[in-house]
Amino acid sequence: MFLSIFEIFKVGIGPSSSHTMGPMVAGGRFLETLRTGVSIPGAGPPAAVTCSLHGSLAWTGKGHATDRAVLLGLCGLEPATIDPDAIADIEAGVHKRCVVTPEGLPPLRFDPSADLTFDFDVVLPGHTNGMVFSAFDGNGQLRNKETYYSVGGGFVVTEDELAAQDTSPKAVRSELTDAGFPYPFATAADMLVMGEAAGKTIAAMKLANETLASGSRETVGQNLDTIIAAMDDCIDRGLAQGGELPGKLKVKRRAKAIHEVLIAERGINIAQPHAINDWLIVYAMAVNEENAAGGRVVTSPTNGAAGVVPSVLRYYREHCIGANANGVQDFMLTAAAVGGIIKHNASISGAEVGCQGEVGSAAAMAAAGLCAALGGTNAQIENAAEIALEHHLGMTCDPVGGLVQIPCIERNGLGAIKAVSAASLALRGDGTHVVPLDACIETLRQTGRDMNEKYKETSRGGLAVNLPGC
Fold first, then answer.
1. pLDDT tens digits for 326-354?
2. Where a domain ends, among 139, 164, 189?
3. Is 0.90 topped by the overall pTM?
């Protein structure tokens, strides 16, 4: 089960990869089922569709724009290509006409106020981010029905696909080997052993695997440039925007004003040495303010944690001595390798394991990437990732008002600072350490399993219930 860098990092829209991008993708997949799938015998052509949202998708769906995402998906639109500026008009049109008109299908009746339901009482068995799509013919007879799970980072699986998955290291290693990938690592330990045996860096091994998957190094490079450009664009847009974020909290954007002060302080020796942290924070906040506004972002590995990796990457390019294009590539490839290992062996879903799986994973990825870009050994890189992840263990996901704003925006900035600190600490050593990254990832999985459900992206615990008026 190969996880490409372009699956860990993919362009989409905010505010959530699991609650916005995932349901949009699920809606599109259901349309494809209507076009090509087998319907219930005796049913006529599809004439109407419905959707029910369950678990975390119901509890925080309004704040995460899940209802809008389902609507857009049923219109045949995709996260990577949709124009964020066109969304409001599209949504208003469907609410007015109560019809969606996806390509290749007849007009389908869909009244969002009646045909999209938030089921707060039923959590589907496969994952807390569950949704059920149904299609009916002109006589109201059920024609197609499918259950989807949005498992984090914009990844979506059907009920059958989830049941068939085997992400154990043995299964992943075997599948990668059978597919001919030159470095079939499924764990951090595998990665270190293979790197030592081949005399290869983590980035070089990941690039070799990506080249096999994509067809050429040129293709990998071009696609990587597209992802990095999207990250840069998101930071720059966030640094240029003021005003309030959407939603009842009326949170003010702060990145623009902070950035202007930092620019003014450059070269006049009035800033404290720790102001470098402010640069990291402002880059991350710029991304997550854009995400909260429903703008275009890159999952890194999720939208809720989308600011950490771009922030640390921008920090490397603009503030680190000796930064260069090769370092940027090594950063991204290494970060993706670590993100894939975490996703396979634990989770990147806040609704499944809390924010330790989102910002914690992002910090581990960024720490590994920066350590690689600064010339760290494979052992130092693995140590950097472990340090960053270890110090996010137990972090809850408790978005106030169901919005991806508080504590999410600032939390990305602090995650970026932790990532840089972890990389720096690892580079001061020789890579020898007590707790392996794999043990830390397993602890993440176990902690998420044991965590009370109200602290896992439900807005029913933590800050979400302790902020007056929310």
1. 999 999 999 999 999 999 999 999 999 99
2. 164
3. yes
